[in-house]
Design a protein that fits this description.
Elements: E1 3-7, E2 10-15, E3 39-43, E4 71-85, E5 89-100, E6 106-115, E7 121-131, E8 135-146, E9 159-167, E10 170-179, E11 184-187, E12 191-194, E13 197-198, E14 201-205, H1 219-232, E15 236-238, H2 246-255, E16 258-262, H3 280-295, E17 301-308, H4 317-332, E18 338-342, H5 350-353, E19 360-363, H6 372-375, E20 381-387, E21 404-405, E22 429-430, H7 437-446, E23 450-456, H8 489-497, E24 503-506, E25 516-523, E26 527-532, E27 535-541, E28 549-554, E29 559-566, E30 569-577, E31 584-589, E32 593-594, E33 601-609, E34 622-629, E35 631-637, E36 651-653, E37 658-665, E38 670-678, E39 681-690
Parallel strand pairs: 14-15, 14-23, 15-16, 16-17, 17-18, 18-19, 19-20, 20-23, 21-22, 32-39
Antiparallel strand pairs: 1-2, 1-3, 4-5, 5-8, 6-7, 6-9, 9-10, 11-12, 12-13, 24-25, 25-28, 26-27, 26-29, 29-30, 31-33, 33-37, 34-36, 34-38, 35-37, 38-39
Length: about 700
């Protein structure tokens, strides 16, 4: 935050909001010829606390140097909309701002070409205009695309609008804008429709850090997160609680996600002593405008969120502020609805009362969802933040049907938690303001008018380790842990949100003689039969109201087996075996070929297994890594919220039998070899290729 930039000693400006994109004009202060130009950037993040989570610090998003002729398309100067869409044709309206920085008026020709997914031209518009010197002119063009391929979650087709500028018949600038053709609406009674088809928004909230890689953006790390979520059935991302990196939106465009693009966590009333409230009066209008201008062409962006749980909800000033923010957004983009995360979902809430929200975003309070239309007649629902379930991967507290609300109240410490600072991965632990996964999703699923939900959170993140204090240092909220390893709740949603055959049983099968163990299954099969060492413990069937199957069985070493059966598909068997003594290491790379660009990554899962290859669920061996060839280790992790081992290291202890090592190319083409060793275990090696 608080970035200041100079060029050759000339002060260019300051932007207090660390999440916002900006650009400065360098031209008047440059040195030419062989002289050196120096750009200096100062970031001052010393005033703490200024955030409720780990924000990172420094230059953690990409920087570009842009050179143009004196006539060029203005920064964020193109706005593409599709006001009329049918199966036969789509009208594409394009507004393009062109700046003439020359000292004389110029006759400018703007030729805009629309290219389809194959790079074929499907529409051209040409306009000619005298643009006065030192001025900006906005061209208005309209084109028709015949038989358009609509952007959808399953097939996110993208078009490109290429803006080519000529002056005096000489080409002098070109700019490219990616967009999609789609229609959508939120209906009061029937929920969300995309391209005239009903869609339930199955989203998650994510903070911007990338676990062991920190806050610095990496496109492959973002893509991996989205791939993991997509495989779960997730179709929505909320950029909580700030403008995202533009690379995230590019990926959501390509992969098919519904994005809630969020501007602020704080308005004028503070949540932390040195947060954004200090800069609100001077900067909120500029920051919000820049967010909308930057992101309004992304087909993945379906709604703007103007705030999250802001303190003005209970204050009369919230009415005018919400109206002001909504007007700023609508002035720049009237094609998308406006929402906000409201954690006081009552008619007296100032944000709701203001009339500024097109979608009433409700954070938590799932008990009021079913009566939404009675409480807010004529309004449209969005579950802007739900759940806040808590879990440590591979940790299980029994009995599993006892729900732990930790801490007992939001403002009270947890005094009776687990001594090892874990939270149970059965779906039986949540915050007192939130819910388990089972307590919210069936409600959303049942009612059409509940357009969808954004779960808190998709991934664990750095900071905010509710319900525990230090030494816990990262969150327990994620469906996926900080290393990118799914917790059991991942399969809760995969069984509900996808059509792929799902049968996931847990916990592990390493217990003590005489223990009684709760065995759970998440599945989309008609029924599941459970066996212990060949003996059946009965058949159970899932209902619309209860998403898990539960058996209480005596532990016996051997094999826990489940068979899922359905009339419409072949049966599926899952087994969990009692693991023996840890014997060897297994390395599994998510990609064995990466780009030799100095940025691309391979995420390598490290498993400690017994002699038969069964994961050792309690293994915590220290794993040492050695890399050779054209790569380097850029991060290690294991998902344990209390681990104080460094993320930048050549070793990591396993947590519940697993850890992660992240390898990056060094920019050269060639082979990469990663070896993993540990005292008492057989070593492993995996080969990668940077190309």
């Amino acid at each position: 935050c608080n970035s200041e930039v100079w060029i050759n000693g000339h002060y260019l400006g300051k932007r207090p909001y660390g999440y916002i994109s900006f650009r400065y004009e360098l031209t008047p202060f440059l040195k030419y010829g062989g002289a050196e130009n120096v750009v200096a950037v100062k970031v001052d993040n010393s005033q703490q606390p200024n955030s409720r989570w780990y924000s990172g610090s420094g230059i953690y998003r990409n920087v570009w140097l842009v050179t143009t002729e004196k006539i060029f398309v203005e920064h964020w100067g193109t706005f593409v909309t599709t006001p009329e869409v049918s199966a036969q044709s789509a009208r594409v309206a394009i507004r393009t701002k062109v700046r003439n920085a020359a000292q004389q008026d110029r006759t400018v020709t703007l030729k805009t070409t629309i290219l389809d997914q194959a790079g074929k031209s499907v529409g051209v518009a040409t306009s000619r205009q005298i643009v006065p010197k030192q001025a900006v002119f906005e061209f208005m063009q309209s084109l028709t695309v015949h038989n358009p391929i609509l952007w959808s979650l399953e097939a996110p087709a993208l078009y490109r609008a290429v803006s080519a500028i000529e002056a005096e018949d000489k080409p002098i600038d070109d700019d490219e804008t990616t967009f999609g053709i789609r229609t959508f609406t939120f209906d009061v009674e029937k929920g969300f429709f995309l391209n005239n088809k009903p869609v339930k928004i199955k989203g998650v909230c994510n903070h911007h850090d990338l676990g062991c890689l920190g806050a610095a953006v990496n496109t492959r790390a973002l893509a991996r997160q989205l791939e993991i979520l997509k495989a779960m059935g997730c179709n929505g991302i909320r950029t909580s609680h700030n403008p995202p990196a533009p690379e995230l939106l590019d990926l959501c465009d390509k992969m098919g996600f519904i994005v809630m693009d969020e501007a602020f966590d704080v308005w004028k009333k503070q949540k932390a002593p040195f947060d954004y409230h200090l800069y609100w009066d001077e900067w909120h209008k500029r920051d919000l405008e820049d967010l909308v201008l930057r992101d309004r062409n992304h087909p993945s962006v379906f709604m703007w969120s103007i705030g999250n749980e802001v303190r003005e909800q209970g204050d009369s000033t919230g009415v005018a502020l919400a109206q002001e923010l909504a007007a700023i957004v609508k002035n720049l983009d009237a094609t998308r609805p406006i929402t906000a995360g409201c954690d006081h979902p009552w008619p007296g809430n100032s944000l709701i009362k203001s009339g500024a929200l097109d979608l009433i975003g409700i954070n938590y309070h799932q008990d009021v969802f079913a009566n939404f239309l009675k409480t807010f007649p004529g309004q449209k629902f969005l579950g802007s933040e739900t759940n806040s379930a808590l879990a440590s991967r591979g940790s299980y507290d029994m009995p599993s049907d006892k729900i732990r609300r930790w801490p007992p109240r939001w403002d009270l410490p947890l005094l009776d938690g687990n001594p090892d600072y874990t939270c149970s991965a059965y779906d039986n632990c949540s915050t007192p303001w939130g819910s388990t996964h089972q307590e919210t999703w069936p409600i959303i699923k049942k009612h059409d008018f509940l357009s969808g939900m954004f779960i808190w959170t998709g991934f664990d993140y750095l900071g905010e380790p509710t319900p525990y204090p230090w030494p816990a240092r990262s969150s327990y909220f994620g469906i996926v842990d900080l290393a990118g390893f799914p917790k059991d709740s991942y399969y809760f949603y995969q069984s509900e949100w996808t059509n792929k055959p799902v049968l996931h049983i847990f916990p592990h099968w390493n217990w003590s003689a005489g223990d009684t163990i709760d065995v759970w299954a998440y599945t989309n099969f008609d029924d599941v039969e459970l066996f212990v060492n060949g003996a059946s413990f009965g058949v159970k069937q899932k209902t619309d109201e209860v998403c898990q199957l539960v058996w209480r069985v005596p532990f016996a070493p051997g094999v826990l087996k489940a068979i899922g059966r359905a009339e419409s598909q072949p049966s599926l068997t899952r087994e969990i075996k009692t693991a023996g003594k840890p014997d060897r290491i297994i390395l599994e790379a998510d990609r064995d070929r990466i780009q030799a660009d100095g940025h691309d990554l391979s995420f390598i899962t490290v498993k400690v297994v017994d002699a038969e290859g069964t994961l050792a669920p309690r293994a915590d061996n220290l794993i040492n890594f050695e890399i050779q060839g054209e790569g380097k280790i850029v991060g290690v992790d294991n998902g344990l919220q209390t681990s104080h081992e460094p993320f930048k290291a050549n070793s990591r202890k396993a947590f519940h039998g697993m850890c992660l090592v992240v390898v990056q190319s060094n920019g050269k083409v060639g082979s990469i070899s990663l070896s993993a060793t540990s005292e008492g275990l057989q070593a492993a090696t995996v080969g990668l290729l940077a190309q």
